Records
---
Amino acid sequence: MQVGVLVFTAAEELDLAGPWEMLGMRSLMAAKPSPVLVAQKVEPVRCAKGLTLLPHHSFDDCPPLDVLVVPGGQGTRREVDNEALIGFIADRAGSAKAVLSVCTGAFLLHKAGLLAGRRATTHWASLDRLRAFGDVTVVEERYVVDGPIWTSAGVSAGLDMALEFIARTDGPAVAGKVQLVAEYYPDGHRHGGAAAHARAPDYAHVVPRPR
């Protein structure tokens, strides 16, 4: 399953790096192809906090993708009017098994015609802006799944979404291994049972108390 992660100027770093990390670990655990970075051109792209990335592929030479990850960030406010980028998302959505957006990446999905009539979420500060379209059922959850379209809340929520995507796609055993290697246990949810590993950190065994 080939994963492509979209990158553009002023994309939020963790929006793309979080899913990249989880899906990259999945590639190792399940012997799948490594994710690739895709941008309009193969040239350095400066993200929101100054991290500069060099894409593997341009829109023109991007290989077939089974999964497309679309980050958010301030750059989405400009890219929503980028016909080449929106066209790329719409085109790849037609052949991909799933499209995942993080944070305000949801607005790029909406512009590409992927959210009309669906349930979706985005960063808490942009929920009303998403509601204003009138054709999206906005759900205030960490992530929302509606058919092949996955959307998540802001920034770090992309980690949770990617982990759940792995659990549903490759099974809880693979997701549990990814979760263990990443030491990612923020919300008490444990995939598969890998947290019972003898060398797992103590906090992996503990479900947080309700507040």
Note: The chain has a mean pLDDT of 93.
---
Amino acid sequence: MKKYAVATVIALSFVFFALFNFTYEPAVLAKESNPASYYQEKAIHSRDGIGKFYLGREIAHVMGHQAMLWLERPSRETEEQPQAVVEALCLQPNDVVADIGAGTGYMSFRMANLLPEGQVFAVDIQPEMLDALNFLKQENKLTNVETILGTETNPQLPDESIDLALMVDAYHEFEYPREMMEGIVRSLKPGGKSVLVEYRQENPLIPIKPLHKMSQKQVKKEMKAVGLTWQETKDILPQQHLMIFTK
């Protein structure tokens, strides 16, 4: 009887753990029968994700415009060191740069100040984010930042128009990462760079939800799938990888 009781407790504990950490959505079905699809959708998945998997990684929920003040929090200066990110990009005065998932323009404006002869395309899929960005652009009197309303599958950038695409804590939330990256690659000039900044999944002590972190190994796999070549990783930030890929 004791063995049976112990086994029952263990089984119930496992069920409780599964229900606590995962969300069940009966309407979502696996798509393994469709080999042409880049994605799998699973009925049992993390509550922090959308139940959609790409190359073994579950895609995280996107941060909505309701949380835009989080992007402008004062502590971000020390937590993420945006100035160090910009310096690591080695921008030239006439570069054309795309800030993908630009949000309120936190990174766009920093880059624009270094591009007196260049331009920043600030891309986001949420009109509310771009409204805030345009307001702040006028406040800062910046004329070399252009907002672009992208879609979930297309950044809406002209082909071979940019020298660099920057994604800061954004890529892991792309609902269609394959299609978005293919669009970004098309927009890069030959030899252009794609730079991703993501919280380090390798470090479990970083207080960020697991689906909002990425490992170097996973990022390299996903960038290789769209034809980008890893150039280097600069671990100059307190908690994030800065990974550079070239076309």
Note: Residues 1-35 have pLDDT under 50 and may be disordered.
---
Amino acid sequence: MSDRVIITENGPVATVTLSRPEKRNALDLPMIEGIVEAAASLKVRRDIRAVVLTGAGEAFCAGLDVSAMPMLAKVAGEAGFQTRTHGASNLFQATAMAWAELPQPVIAAIHGYAFGGGFQIMLGADMRVAAPDTRFSIMEGRWGLVPDMGGMVLMRRLARGDIIRRLTYTAEQFSATQARDWGFVTELDTDPLARAQTLAAEIAAKSPDAVRAAKALITETELLGVGETLIAESAAQEKLVGTPNQMEAVMAGMQKRDPVFRN
């Protein structure tokens, strides 16, 4: 696997760790590719019955690495955001959707920060256990963008539309308690990794056929129009990347100043 993503196994439970702690597991291209590769490698493993998804160091994932944005935009621009490379998804969407599509249940252990792309990745899990002091944000609006890593599919499973709109429009940070109350987090625990591993072990002790069938059934009956939603995400993002106001959002953020947008 990529050195950005580490898989460890304890019997039938696999733990996937985002491993770029010096950058709070911020997403660059190798990290994105490593996450997708990790999910693909586990998807075919009948001996793995449950998966824990976590981040090394002081954060789960602080979102997109701003310094990697030009490379990511170049990669996306060459293929086009709307080009499907991973089933119904593009590469970026697969970082979150691959966990939702995994046949095994996935429990995310969240601590520190889950911002932007990191927030969307955790939504791909079946359950999310968060430390009480975790901070969250749908941060794409800060950079003049929209959530485009499966968020428009995954958020709608969990939260009311007005909450999704508020958090997406404002890009504000919110607490673990708010995340739980709004439906984004399943439960809080002072040791989210230990709790996630306990849940995974409990699930792994059940019939793997029944558990896989249950996940497939729940997913099938709660989702409509996934492919269409993912394309809409990509189309919206494609119109924003590289535009003057989007670039101004990035520059203002990097320079720690107020942005000046054009009408």
Note: The chain has a mean pLDDT of 92.
